[in-house]
Amino acid sequence: MTNIAGVFIISFTPAEILFNNPELCHLRVTLPPGSCPFYPPRGTLRYPIIGIRSGSGIGPVIFYIPGAPTFVPSLLK
Question: Is 2 part of a structural domain of the chain?
């Protein structure tokens, strides 16, 4: 969920990070009709979750950000 400004927070518990790789997860966004000037008809937007690592990119993940969106067509017409 986002707030009124469209801001969202991605958070993972230590167990989720230990037993799952959050970088293999995706955010799935469905925009209600009329809620935004951009409306993907019959589909959703999918954002990969990207881990930002400390140091020169080989250290531990220090936070996560959404990547570039892709459009996923709905199977229902």
Answer: no
